[in-house]
Amino acid sequence: MVKDILENVQDVKLYINGSFVEATSGKAFENLNPFTNETINQVAEGDTADIDEAVRAAKAAFKGEWGQMKVKERLAYIYKIADLIDEHIHEIAPLESYDTGLPISQTKKMVARAAQNFRFYAEMVSARLVGDAYPVDDEFLNYTIHKPVGVAGLITPWNAPFMLETWKIAPALATGNTVILKPAEWSPLTANRLAEIIDQAGLPDGVFNVVHGFGETAGASLVAHPDVQLISFTGETTTGSEIMRNGADTLKRFSMELGGKSPIIVFDDADFDRALDACTWGIFSFNGERCTANSRLFIHEAIYDKFVAALKERVDNIIVGDPLDEGTQIGPLAHKTHYNRVLSYLDIAKEEGCDVYSGTVPESYKSGNYVAPTLLLGADNKMRIAQEEIFGPVMTVIPFKDEEEVIEKANDIRYGLAGYVWTKDIKRGHRVAQAVDAGMLWVNSQNVRDLRTPFGGSKHSGIGREGGYYAFEFYTEQQVIHVALGDHHIPQFGKKK
Ligand SMILES: NC(=O)c1ccc[n+]([C@@H]2O[C@H](COP(=O)([O-])OP(=O)(O)OC[C@H]3O[C@@H](n4cnc5c(N)ncnc54)[C@H](O)[C@@H]3O)[C@@H](O)[C@H]2O)c1
Ligand SMILES: O=C/C=C/C=C(\O)C(=O)O
């Protein structure tokens, strides 16, 4: 069945105003399979004209049926999308693996999480999208309501495309906005599948639109469009800055989920085996292309040798393979360009004096974008390989002596997305977690998500938060209504005495 799905992948069109259409320019770009670097299909290359068309449709839908719809009815569509995703996991997950190189066992879980994103926001909106009341004695009742903002522009990356797209689309739609998604150009297949699912769910035309294309053209036009009220962006830090510059003239509201170089700190009293499991999973799952990956390991000097020996054994035994094989733990990186960038960091590591320890890639996979799981040993936090986001299955390993030193080093970086602390000392666990400058910390755990909590980073890792109530702050406009309950005093300007 999977073979049939992949052999029958069609060219991808734009989804605008309820129809699948070619780009206005007639142009298309090639989509490659990271496993073979062969062409999968052609993708319609949207640009300014298509963004204009999509914005027109989204604006009309917002003013029309979708904007007028009762909340219960709107949320029924959101639940329907969740159900349809669940029904089609077994075809969406292989498409995602085919397009990105992510192992199928992991994409299956991510697709299930995507369905959950829709369900979660339908529940959040029905139970929690409430305003506040501010009675003022018997003079006023002031209260707030949340209104959708309008047309939402969502710009997403290729590293976990389906899950990250739905993490934005679900709250944007559930709160009543209309949406234009600009997916990453390296991973268009499942965004297209989502358009088909949303079409099947029967949402009114123009409520959800997908414009494929490049960041510099389609993405930039979406950011600059005066009728797009907000941009939620996930991607690289430098792209985030560029987008903020380009959106300044039209005063866009921004949510920025950006890069990371997150520390995992393992103290000598940590549960050794669990810390080892978490540390390996945290850098090598998603092929290391995870924003919250623990890409900097700080390991206490008393257990450094033993922990590194155990890590090497894991690296030797990780199953590098075909992303569509159930047993595969690491697949090829999403694109040749990114692969070359990640490899360039292995050269930099050698130049900076690290001991580069890599697993192996089976000979039969040499045409894919495979980077073997790699440890950069004997590193110093000042090195480029400790400061820059590599975004591959590569972990920088740094020894430390004491708590004060490790906190300073963990924070000596421009990023602040996530962090992980391993210790059996509960006081130290809290203390160190609170001292790390990052948006999200986990104590004695890998990156386990709770959709209710604020997701996002500090410093150069982002602005704002997604998740739970935090999505309401971003995707809705709070309006306050002041109602006089009696005849309070009004100054009488210009009234003759
Ligand atoms: N903090 C988070 O939640 C989070 C989650 C996932 C990924 N990321 C980060 O994303 C990066 C990897 O993703 P990527 O390489 O796709 O990022 P990227 O910044 O290159 O691209 C992301 C998206 O932005 C678009 N884009 C590029 N230039 C644009 C422009 N000038 N105007 C508008 N849109 C533009 C791209 O086409 C793509 O859709 C990593 O840095 C990773 O850490 C962060
Ligand atoms: O690449 C960014 C993805 C972040 C989300 C997670 O790591 C996750 O939710 O598992």
Automatic annotation (TrEMBL):
The active site is at 257. The keyword Oxidoreductase applies. Belongs to the aldehyde dehydrogenase family. It holds the Pfam family Aldedh. Residues 20-480 form the Aldehyde dehydrogenase domain. This is 5-carboxymethyl-2-hydroxymuconate semialdehyde dehydrogenase. It comes from the Bacteria. Keywords: NAD, Oxidoreductase. InterPro entries: Ald_DH/histidinol_DH, Ald_DH_C, Ald_DH_CS_CYS, Ald_DH_CS_GLU, Ald_DH_N, Aldehyde_DH_dom, DH_HpaE.
